[in-house]
Design a protein that fits this description.
The chain is α+β, with helices and mostly antiparallel strands and 78 residues long. The protein has 1 helix and 5 strands; from the N terminus they run βββββα. The two termini are 24 Å apart.
Length: 78
Amino acid sequence: MNRHDTAIMEIHGYELGRIVAMTSGGPLWSTVGRDGAEALVSLHSSGEGEALEARWRAWAGVSHPGIARLLDVVRHED
């Protein structure tokens, strides 16, 4: 179990904790990354993922202290 009181579900090694923010793209779930650092998870349907893949690839190349770092993109069957 990670640092969260209760894991709601596990997806590809990430134990989702509570929702920490609601955004225009949906909820952000708390988790602990594979490196042990606190992280956020955003879930999207396969269709949304395909539409956003180019944007995520561009985001993964950005390194700036004022921008959240993209750690991982995981595909999971809906």
